[in-house]
Each structure stands twice: as C-alpha cells, then as structure tokens.
Amino acid sequence: MNTPPAYSVTTLEAAEGALISPAIVLDLETGGEASVARIRQSLSDIMCELDDCARWFGSTTPELIIPYDAADVSEGDLADLINSTQGGREVSAAVRLMPAAPGLNYYQQKNFGFLQSTRDIVIFVDSDLRLERGWLRALLEPFADPAILAVVGRTHFETTRFYERAMALFWIFDTREDASVVRPTDRLVSNNIAFRSKLFAAMPFPDRPTYRGQCGELGWRLAQFGVQLLEATGARAIHPPPQGLRAFLRRAWFAGKDARYYDGLKAKRVTCIELLRHDLSVLRKRIVKRAAAIRAGRVAVLAAHILGGVYYITKSLSYSLCAMEDGDHTSKL
After folding, report:
1. All domains of the chain, ordered by start, with CATH?
2. Cβ–Cβ under 8 Å, residues 2 and 226
3. What global pTM score does this model have?
4. Residue 22 carries which DSSP code?
5. Residues of the chain with pLDDT under 50
6. pLDDT tens digits for 146-184?
7. 3-state DSSP call for residue 27?
C-alpha cells in the first residue's frame, strides 16, 4: 500500500486567498423525493455560495453542471426553475444542463456529470440538501495544498423537530459540528464531497447494481491506494430525514440488499441474526455518542432506539430473504 500523502496544517487554515474554480455537479436523482421548493432552495444556496467566492476564483469561471433524465424533466422546466431561482441576477458560473441516458442510477448520474466537467476540482452535491453559508469555501480551501486529493463535507440532519432529533441519533450522517476544522476521515459521503478531477477520472464511483454502497466501496479503494480523505466540518449541509414510513422502510430494505451484494463480492456470509446483533451494537454506541452532542432527552433517545430497531430488523430480513442475482458473486472488490 502506498503511503498516504502528507498535508500541511498551515495550508489548511482558513485564510484569505485564491480558490481553485470548481465544477459543481448537482444531482437531481433525488428530485422525486424532494419537493420543487427544496430543489429551488438548493440551487439558491449554490448560487449564493458561488457569489460569495466569485472574487477568489480569478479569471476561470466555475461550472454548475446539472445532469437530468429527459424522461423525468424537460430542459425548459429546468431552465425556468433556474431563472426563477436567480431572480434576474447573473449566476457566477457557467450553467450547463446535460441530458443523460435514460435510467441512470444515482452514481451513474454523478459519473456522467463529471464527464461533462472541465475544471480541476469537481464537487458533487445533491438537490435535496440545504447548504449553510461558507460551505463552498470550506470545501475548496484545503486544495491550496497540492497533496490534497479529496475533501468530504459535513452532512447532517436538522434537530429542531422530534422526528429529526430521533433520526439524527442513529442515521448514517454524523451530527452537526460547530467548529470548522479540517481533519483526516475514513468516511466518504457522496452527496457533499470534492475531488481533484485527475483522481476521480482514475477512480470514479464504481458501477454496481446496488441502491447505495458505491460510496463506501470508493472510500475503500482510495484507502487501498493510500489516498487520505479529509473532512471539512465547515462545509455543512442539511439533509432531510426519510419522509414517511414507506421511504424509511424502503431505505432499510435496500440497505439489506446492498449488504448482501457486497458480502457476496467478498465471498462472505453472515446469518440474519448475526447481522442484526452487529447493527444493534453499532446503534447503541452511536446513540450514546450523539445524545450528548445534540442534547437529546430520554424520549428522543427511546424513539431513536425504536426507529433504529425497526430499521435494522428490516435490513436483516432483506439481507436474508433477497436472493443474489446470478453472476453477482463473480466480481471481486
């Protein structure tokens, strides 16, 4: 294994200076789950961030690339949405609406969007996120060090409502962090992340028939090649929790299918009970760790245990009941 690249703490400190002009790939795959209002909010947030950083980009204009499935949305509707969002003001980026092949999955859409970019840094962000002020600068500043290849933002749930607090206690996203620091991480979050384009061109999101999981696989591959991921906690983005019971259980079901698929690639099998015991152990530790961070009360903690239990029971049943497709086990990680 190669030695992870070193980085200089001094170059990662927030400082006034030039920023590398990025290509931002906005994924609309979540548009079916997110309302038009949320998509408009995400677009507005990105435009504000581009405006805030415009004077630091020099002569190179950033790109805002929006891949879309023409079977789901028309270019005209997207153009109208963008125009209504900008409110007549000029966008500090070259906006490019790119029709993709029908039926691309979440990660294929991101890979397609990357192929349309021409900048040295590519940022992937999803249309159901709300971006906190300073998000873009926090993602880009670490790249002042040429050794830095990938920077992960901090995606979290809001905690103002009871359901959000309970979900924030156990879901895959970490809690919000007030401090803005840059530090090594082993977690790759695909809805809020920046890569040097030369790295992503060599190692895009893996093409798998899974719902999610490719981001974890890419993180594992990068680690095998000695690429150190950095987390910029100042690049904060708010993600909505699953809306409704059906969406919640659907995520759990696909999590089980994905786990079964990836275990098949590694010629690994665990029983339904073994998987559930492991997940419930992780659940308990996660809730204990996060309860203090978000000042969760006993009722929210209890609700998190119940929701988490339902989620992981559904996941383990899916893992056990969903048969692997023929040939899935032939590829290896």
Report:
1. 9-238 (3.90.550.10), 245-330 (no CATH)
2. yes
3. 0.90
4. E
5. 1-15, 31, 324-332
6. 999 999 999 999 999 999 999 999 999 999 999 999 999
7. strand
